[in-house]
Amino acid sequence: MIPKEILKKVKQIQIRSSRLVNDVLAGEYVSVFKGRGMEFEEVREYQIGDDIRTIDWNVTARLGHPYIKRFAEERELTIMFLVDLSSSGKFGSVRQLKNEIATEACALLALSAIRNNDKVGLILFTDKIEKFVPPKKGKTHVLRVIREVLYFKPEHKGTDISTALEYLIKITKRKTVSFLMSDFLTTGFEHALRITNKRHDVIAVSITDPRELEIPNVGFIELKDAETGEITLIDTFDQKFRREFFRRNTKNMQERKKMFGSMGVDLIDVRTDSSYVEPIMSFFRMREKRLKY
What we know:
- The chain is α/β, with parallel strands linked by helices.
- The chain folds into two domains: about 5-30 and about 75-290, Rossmann fold (3-Layer(aba) Sandwich); about 40-75, no CATH class.
- The protein has helices spanning about 5-25, 30, 55-65, 100-115, 140-150, 160-170, 190-200, 240-265, 275-290, and strands spanning about 40-45, 65-75, 80-85, 120-125, 130-135, 175-180, 200-210, 220-225, 230-235, 265-270.
- Strand 8 (about 220-225) and strand 9 (about 230-235) form a beta hairpin.
- Helix 1 (about 5-25) packs across helix 4 (about 100-115), helix 4 (about 100-115) packs antiparallel against helix 5 and helix 6 (about 160-170) runs parallel beside helix 7.
- The relative contact order is 0.14.
């Protein structure tokens, strides 16, 4: 039985996200995703005015007359959400936890998808696959997806992004648009990401809290690793330590961004201390601009 407060929270997220879809993302989703994929439809005889680039030279040679390939736009897309439920997602030092941001970002993008008659599916993962929701259409299905991201209790605490990517390839036959949502506080997934992005359109959504980059001067504090449980005592009075902490974590973020870029994986960089809407909008504007050239 799902608690009433969870159902209430899902409804609140739905109302807020639906308003954003209608007011902000109404046209961007269509211009970036819809109609970009093309499926082969038929071969027919060449007619004056046809684009010569569409000539099917094999058929032309066999029949002795020029023939062209005709394509039809793919009207239906499959949007997959791969959401990291490892314990580090339960952290947030400002307005929201990282996993709350992930839920709302999923809701915004999923509602945009069903508004355009696309399918939406979900993979929840830690260091194993925790839950798979097969892609379907419809408002009721999307509400289930939002509820699962918000309410599901994972069995494990760790992170293995490679496992999620390999599972995506295993359970999907056609190309998908896949949003990979994580704080990416792990390594070793680069090879799996490279392979997956050749088959699917993978978009990384990185969720970061400001305290993962910079620690304030508050004296001695204990830091607990959410995934391993390891506790470390640090002295934040130490200016050298704070500088090194910032330098190391900033460098890790920059290297991760560079890695995504080298693979052709777009990155949406979201922080817990600011709105997730603007980074998503920036992504759509960037995609739209790139498609024009």
